[in-house]
Amino acid sequence: MKVTKAEIVISAVSEKQYPNDQLPEIALAGRSNVGKSSFINTLINRKNLARTSSKPGKTQTLNFYLINDAFYFVDVPGYGYAKVSKKERQKWGKMMEEYFEKRHSLKAVLLITDIRHEPTVDDLQMYDFLKYYELPVLIIATKLDKVSKNKRSQHVKRTEKAFQVEAGDLVLPFSAETGEGKEEAWSMIRQYMEV
């Protein structure tokens, strides 16, 4: 997909702040520091629309990025970062639950993981949580460029096995460095929006 326009519209903390134009939304979930911002920036060919940070746990709101005036990427707060207070984590949890449970324009969730490592308990819980709400999930296994070519398929299999990926969901290897997996990601996103 050729992205000619991309802008952040709002950083929301509750339902009343969400855009109400009924455009389709694709949410991005993942552990803090797993590469969600890099994934968005690679997809839209922009260096820093989604701000990357060396400090995990920086995204504390639902960030709505309007793409080509046609749909939104919604970046949700990263999970699994210990330095955030329990109270703060509960607040995020409530905000995310409200979004995933009630948002009718949400078409699918891209669950970002690091292909180098086995999915964490938090990753698996997030997947189960999304499936509880019957949302289509595409698992984006980032940092593919850091894995040697002859080990890639075994890393993908390990990820699929850990998640026990349901029919219709996929694991897509991806690299923000090389752009590998970018076309496949766009083609999946288009399919989700046509459903």
TrEMBL record:
<dbReference type="InterPro" id="IPR027417">
    <property type="entry name" value="P-loop_NTPase"/>
</dbReference>
<keyword id="KW-0717">Septation</keyword>
<dbReference type="GO" id="GO:0000917">
    <property type="term" value="P:division septum assembly"/>
</dbReference>
<comment type="function">
    <text>Necessary for normal cell division and for the maintenance of normal septation.</text>
</comment>
<dbReference type="InterPro" id="IPR030393">
    <property type="entry name" value="G_ENGB_dom"/>
</dbReference>
<keyword id="KW-0460">Magnesium</keyword>
<keyword id="KW-0547">Nucleotide-binding</keyword>
<protein>
    <recommendedName>
        <fullName>Probable GTP-binding protein EngB</fullName>
    </recommendedName>
</protein>
<dbReference type="Pfam" id="PF01926">
    <property type="entry name" value="MMR_HSR1"/>
</dbReference>
<dbReference type="GO" id="GO:0005525">
    <property type="term" value="F:GTP binding"/>
</dbReference>
<keyword id="KW-0342">GTP-binding</keyword>
<dbReference type="InterPro" id="IPR019987">
    <property type="entry name" value="GTP-bd_ribosome_bio_YsxC"/>
</dbReference>
<comment type="similarity">
    <text>Belongs to the TRAFAC class TrmE-Era-EngA-EngB-Septin-like GTPase superfamily. EngB GTPase family.</text>
</comment>
<keyword id="KW-0131">Cell cycle</keyword>
<dbReference type="GO" id="GO:0046872">
    <property type="term" value="F:metal ion binding"/>
</dbReference>
<dbReference type="GO" id="GO:0005829">
    <property type="term" value="C:cytosol"/>
</dbReference>
<keyword id="KW-0479">Metal-binding</keyword>
<dbReference type="InterPro" id="IPR006073">
    <property type="entry name" value="GTP-bd"/>
</dbReference>
<keyword id="KW-0132">Cell division</keyword>
<feature type="domain" description="EngB-type G">
    <location>
        <begin position="22"/>
        <end position="195"/>
    </location>
</feature>
